[in-house]
């Protein structure tokens, strides 16, 4: 049972990493191609700039998801280091607070996504804006779940 869960999580992590790397490389490639087209050929792709802006959002959220998974996100833990025996409680409180913030982010980004879907705004080409922003509720929800799980696990630095 646990082997199946670990294998499934390992596959999910590889997919997550692959999507992040693909989005980053695509973003860099399209931006570089756009620069070459503008500076060398005095032309450009009309969809390239909006596409790259949307990929920045995806790379940011995917990177935050990976950082949360690896427990390497930005953490203000200066106080918890000096609390001694209360340090674990402070860490758990910090992680639960982070889960709450991400949960609120997931909720409101989902509501925002619904408004964008009703509005029917086009991001670039034929791609609706809400499709580009789908990473927001997904990313916040994944981070909230990972923070909740982290509240019950021993941090890697203490393992």
Report on this structure:
With 159 residues, the chain is mainly alpha-helical. The protein has one domain. The chain is built from 6 helices and 2 strands. The protein has helices at 2-40, 48-69, 78-81, 87-119, 129-132, 135-152, and strands at residues 122-124, 127-128. A hairpin with a 2-residue loop joins strand 1 and strand 2 (127-128). Helix 1 (2-40) runs antiparallel to helix 2 (48-69), helix 2 (48-69) packs parallel to helix 6 (135-152) and helix 4 (87-119) packs antiparallel against helix 6. The longest helix has 39 residues, at 2-40. The protein starts with a helix and ends in a 7-residue tail after the last helix. 19% of the residues are buried. The model has no long low-confidence stretch (mean pLDDT 90).
Order of helices and strands: HHHHEEHH
How many independent structural domains?
A: 1
Class inferred from helices and paired strands: mainly alpha
**Average pLDDT metric:** 90
Radius of gyration: 20 Å
Overall strand count: 2
Unreliable stretches covering 5 or more consecutive residues: none
Termini separation (Å)? 23 Å
| Helix run count | 6
Strand content: under 5%
What is the overall silhouette?
Answer: elongated
Largest sheet: 2 strands, antiparallel
Work out the helicity level. over 70%
Order of the strands making up the biggest sheet? 1-2
């Amino acid at each position: 049972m646990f082997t199946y869960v670990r294998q499934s999580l390992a596959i999910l992590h590889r997919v997550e990493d692959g999507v992040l790397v693909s989005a980053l490389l695509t973003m860099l490639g399209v931006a570089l191609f756009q620069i070459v087209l503008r500076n060398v050929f005095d032309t450009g792709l009309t969809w390239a700039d909006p596409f790259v802006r949307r990929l920045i959002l995806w790379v940011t959220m995917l990177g935050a998801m990976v950082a949360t998974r690896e427990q390497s996100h930005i953490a203000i833990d200066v106080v918890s280091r000096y609390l001694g025996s209360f340090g674990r409680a402070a860490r758990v409180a910090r992680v639960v607070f982070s889960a709450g913030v991400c949960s609120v982010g997931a909720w409101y980004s989902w509501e925002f996504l619904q408004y964008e879907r009703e509005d029917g705004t086009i991001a670039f080409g034929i791609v609706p804006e809400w499709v580009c922003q789908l990473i927001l509720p997904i990313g916040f929800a994944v981070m909230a779940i990972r923070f909740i799980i982290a509240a019950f696990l021993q941090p890697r630095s203490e393992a």
